[in-house]
Amino acid sequence: MSDCIFCKIAKGEIPSNKVYEDDQVLCFKDLDPQAPVHVLMIPKKHLDSLSAAAEEDAALLSHMLLKIKDVAKELELDNGYRVVINTGEDGGQSVKHLHMHLLGKRSMNWPPG
Ligand code: AMP
Prior knowledge:
113 residues; alpha+beta; HIT family, subunit A; 5-stranded antiparallel β-sheet; 2 helices; 5 strands; 20% helix; binds adenosine monophosphate
C-alpha cells in the first residue's frame, strides 16, 4: 500500500519513535498520546483492519498479542494496561492499517467513549 502512512513507518520512510521491532511487527509511540504510555503495534504486512485478517494471519495476530504483552512488561505497566484495536468507522479507526494501541500508567474508564 504505497499511500499507507503506517506502511511508510514500517519501511522507515517516515520516522517514528520506535519501542520494539522484529521481522513481523513494529511498535512505536503514538503521536497524540491518550495516556502517559501510549504506543502502537503494527504488522509490517498491510491489513486494512482486523476485519481484513484471515486464517492465514492467525500466527501474526498471535505474535502481535504476545509481543505487546512483552512491551507492556518492558514499559513497566505492572499495574495493568489496555490493548485496543479500533476497527472500522464505528470503532473509531482513523488509520486504515491494522494496529493495536497499548495504553498505560493511568486508570482506564469503562465503558470506553
Ligand atoms: P486509530 O484512531 O485507532 O486509527 O489510531 C490511529 C493512531 O495513530 C492515532 O492514535 C494517532 O495519533 C496515531 N498516529 C497517526 N499518525 C501517526 C504517526 N505518524 N506516528 C505515530 N502515531 C500516529
